[in-house]
Specification:
By secondary structure, the protein is mainly beta. The protein is built from three helices and twelve strands. The protein has a seven-stranded mixed β-barrel. Strands 2-3 form a two-stranded antiparallel ribbon. The chain is globular.
Length: 196
């Protein structure tokens, strides 16, 4: 009988947790959660920052489950396309970029100095028809958010603020990243890797 391991890649939700500068603070009281859609580990829907009008609830549930593919972006401030990705990233995969930036979660630098990805790399992901992009950073880019617009405009959701991607190194895994079935431009999500 095969043993299945589940690795949680989600930040914990708690009152006063780190939020993007200017966003509403997270408050948890008896029977009530007050939060911005983009707090903690969450998924941006295509309608967020693009002309694609699909909300989280409009995306097929299959979008949030699939074969995972880990890309090593450690030590890089800018993650660009590499020829090696041609063999590494299968069509229709859920791509995770490991930068280990989650170690800075909760610090002042976390939202301001995180690694970003290039337009060339983004276009490769679009050509590969990936299901979703997952990051251990707060964003794939900085203002004016061209990468957000490029990926979301093509219907590729972006999961941000993951943690512990180092635990997936060298493993074969699937990703389950279910958001709420919510009429919104983003949703908090519990994202896990399944290793069989």
């Amino acid at each position: 009988m095969n043993t299945i391991a589940i690795i949680d890649l989600s930040q914990r939700i708690y009152s006063g947790m780190p939020v993007y500068p200017g966003d509403t603070a997270v408050e948890i009281t008896s029977h009530r959660l007050i939060t911005n859609h983009h707090a903690g580990t969450h998924i941006d829907a295509p309608i967020h920052l693009s002309d694609n009008r699909k909300r989280i609830c409009d995306l097929p549930i299959e979008t949030f489950h699939g074969v995972g593919c880990l890309i090593d972006g450690r030590g890089k401030k800018t993650i660009d396309y590499e020829d090696a990705f041609e063999d590494l990233v299968p069509s229709g995969a859920i791509v995770l970029i490991r930068t280990d930036w989650d170690a800075a979660y909760g610090t002042q630098d976390y939202f301001s100095f995180h690694p970003v990805i290039t337009e060339g790399f983004s276009k490769f992901l679009i050509d590969r028809e990936v299901k979703m992009l997952c990051l251990d950073t707060p964003s794939p880019d900085q203002a004016p958010y061209r990468i957000h617009r490029l990926l979301l405009g093509k219907g590729i959701p972006i999961a941000e603020n993951l943690k512990d991607l180092r635990r997936l190194e060298g493993l074969t895994f699937k990703i389950v990243a279910f958001p709420l079935n919510i009429e919104a431009e983003a949703s908090l999500a519990r994202i896990v890797a399944i290793i069989e």
